[in-house]
Amino acid sequence: MPIDDQRRLIDPARAEAALAGLGDRATLQEWAERFSVIADPTRLTLLVCIHYAREICVSDLAAVAGMSDTAVSQALRLLRAHGLVTAHRSGRTVYYRLADDTMHELIHRVRPHSESDGVG
Questions:
Q1: SS3 for 98?
Q2: 53 touches 95 (CB < 8 A)
Q3: Which residues pair with 56 in a beta bridge?
Q4: Spatial CB neighbours of 17, under 8 Å, sequence gap ≥ 6
Q5: Between β-strands 93-98 and 56-57, what pairing exists: parallel, antiparallel or unpaired?
Q6: 98-108, pLDDT tens digit by residue?
Q7: What is the band of 36 on the pLDDT scale with cuts at 50, 70, 90?
Q8: Nearest of 93, 98, 99 to residue 69 by alpha carbon
Q9: 13, 18, 31, 111: which has the highest count of C-beta atoms within 10 A?
Q10: What is the 3-state secondary structure (H, E, C) of 23-87?
Q11: Overall fold of domain 38-113
Q12: Where is the HTH arsR-type domain (predicted)?
């Protein structure tokens, strides 16, 4: 999308840099939707727990988050639909993990690791 020619620019170079930084608008929309999903404190709690555990099953996640298995399963379904977590089955148990390094980095920004956490 070009810069509106009808507007007077104070610093065209910075305006061009800002426009270039926006990149694909569809990607911005996708991330806005992801942020709206993780803005919920319950879902963010689950993501932080998954981050620290590396991978975890629903029952264990429910226990540490103080939620019912059903509530955790519903939240995980939404997180999975938005590509924030992935799952794999081991026997009868399904384990969840964060979907990508970007989500790990976001969690580091929300809840940075400290030396006392024992997590590297």
A1: strand
A2: no
A3: 96
A4: none
A5: antiparallel
A6: 998 988 998 88
A7: very high
A8: 93
A9: 111
A10: CCHHHHHHHHHHHHHHCCHHHHHHHHHHHHHCCEEHHHHHHHHCCCHHHHHHHHHHHHHCCCEEE
A11: Arc Repressor Mutant, subunit A (1.10.10)
A12: 23-118
